[in-house]
C-alpha cells in the first residue's frame, strides 16, 4: 500500500513537472521546419513540419537584422522580431529573438510575452528598464524592479510579467532580445485594454481604472501604435 502510494506520488509529480516546464515542448527530432502546406506535412506544436528531404540551410537563415527598424512613430521605437513565423527552422526549438531600436526618448511600452522569458542585451545607448511582479496579495502592492542599462548590459524579464524599456539618452539606442519560445507572443497593455476591437465596455474600464467614463472614452479614441 505504502509502495503503491509512493509510485502514485512519483507519477503525479512527474506529470506535474512536465506540465510546469512545458512552455515550448522539447524537440523530439533534430528539427521540424515549419511549412504552411498541410498535405506534405506532420502536425507538431502549432506548425506543420516540412519534409526533411526538402529542408535546406535557408530554412534556418535570416538576414537584414543589421538594418534599424523605423522609429518614426508616436512611441519612438520599433521591434523587429525573428520567430517561427519568419524563420521556419525555429519550429519546436523553443527560442526566438528581436532587434529593438529606440529613438532618443523612445519607449518600448509596457507589455508582456505570455509564452516566453526574455533577456535583453544593450548594444548602444542608455535604457531605463523594468518589470512588475504579479499581484502579491490583498492590500499589498505589485513590486517594481528597475535598472538603468548601458551598452553591454544584460537584463532578464521573467515570463508573463509586464515590462518596458525607455531610452533615457539623447542618442538612439539598440538592443537585442532572446526569448524562450519560438512564438512568445506580445500583449501591449495599453493597446489590449484601450485599443481592442471592438472596444471593451467603458463601464468596465471606468470601474477597473477608477476614473470617469470620459477619461476612458478619451483613451479609447486614441490611436494605439503597435511597434511590433
Ligand atoms: C518611417 O516611417 C515614417 C512614418 O510612417 C515614414 O514617413 C518614413 O518614410 C519611414 N522611413 C523609412 C526610412 O522607411
TrEMBL record:
<feature type="signal peptide">
    <location>
        <begin position="1"/>
        <end position="22"/>
    </location>
</feature>
<keyword id="KW-0732">Signal</keyword>
<keyword id="KW-0464">Manganese</keyword>
<feature type="binding site">
    <location>
        <position position="118"/>
    </location>
    <ligand>
        <name>Mn(2+)</name>
    </ligand>
</feature>
<comment type="similarity">
    <text>Belongs to the germin family.</text>
</comment>
<protein>
    <recommendedName>
        <fullName>Germin-like protein</fullName>
    </recommendedName>
</protein>
<feature type="disulfide bond">
    <location>
        <begin position="32"/>
        <end position="49"/>
    </location>
</feature>
<feature type="binding site">
    <location>
        <position position="108"/>
    </location>
    <ligand>
        <name>oxalate</name>
    </ligand>
</feature>
<dbReference type="GO" id="GO:0030145">
    <property type="term" value="F:manganese ion binding"/>
</dbReference>
<keyword id="KW-0964">Secreted</keyword>
<dbReference type="GO" id="GO:0048046">
    <property type="term" value="C:apoplast"/>
</dbReference>
<feature type="binding site">
    <location>
        <position position="113"/>
    </location>
    <ligand>
        <name>oxalate</name>
    </ligand>
</feature>
<dbReference type="InterPro" id="IPR001929">
    <property type="entry name" value="Germin"/>
</dbReference>
<keyword id="KW-0052">Apoplast</keyword>
<dbReference type="InterPro" id="IPR011051">
    <property type="entry name" value="RmlC_Cupin_sf"/>
</dbReference>
<feature type="binding site">
    <location>
        <position position="111"/>
    </location>
    <ligand>
        <name>Mn(2+)</name>
    </ligand>
</feature>
<feature type="binding site">
    <location>
        <position position="113"/>
    </location>
    <ligand>
        <name>Mn(2+)</name>
    </ligand>
</feature>
<dbReference type="InterPro" id="IPR014710">
    <property type="entry name" value="RmlC-like_jellyroll"/>
</dbReference>
<dbReference type="InterPro" id="IPR006045">
    <property type="entry name" value="Cupin_1"/>
</dbReference>
<keyword id="KW-0479">Metal-binding</keyword>
<feature type="domain" description="Cupin type-1">
    <location>
        <begin position="63"/>
        <end position="217"/>
    </location>
</feature>
<keyword id="KW-1015">Disulfide bond</keyword>
<feature type="binding site">
    <location>
        <position position="163"/>
    </location>
    <ligand>
        <name>Mn(2+)</name>
    </ligand>
</feature>
<feature type="binding site">
    <location>
        <position position="118"/>
    </location>
    <ligand>
        <name>oxalate</name>
    </ligand>
</feature>
<dbReference type="Pfam" id="PF00190">
    <property type="entry name" value="Cupin_1"/>
</dbReference>
